[in-house]
Amino acid sequence: MFISQPFDEFLEVRYERITDTSVKVTLSIKPVFTASSGFIRGGIISTLADAALRNAVSPDENGRPKVAAVDVNVTFLKKSKSAMLIARAFAVKEGANLTHADCIIHDEHDQVIAKAKAILFNH
To answer: 48 exposed, middle or buried (CB, 10 Å; 0-12, 13-18, 19+)?
Structure first.
């Protein structure tokens, strides 16, 4: 199960649970997601990272998140004109109050585009 978000439905992201603490999120790139230069906008990459990081921790039985982002950091490593981006996120450490999660975003050719990390508040 994944967090139910109307914005994710609008973006048409696809989720795949890998383990209890890891997820793969795929996003097909639409022309509206790119700048006039043809490169994917940083906000789209950040949104994909956020969706993956929050879903690294399985939601509750009603599809509601069990975590909220306290701090998210995205580092852009390469520009991309790819047709698809894939985010792989992992809950690295789940504590009583906070969860630390990491994410790698790559294109369909396995070229790393960005990396992200988050501190998530467990509620």
So the answer is: buried
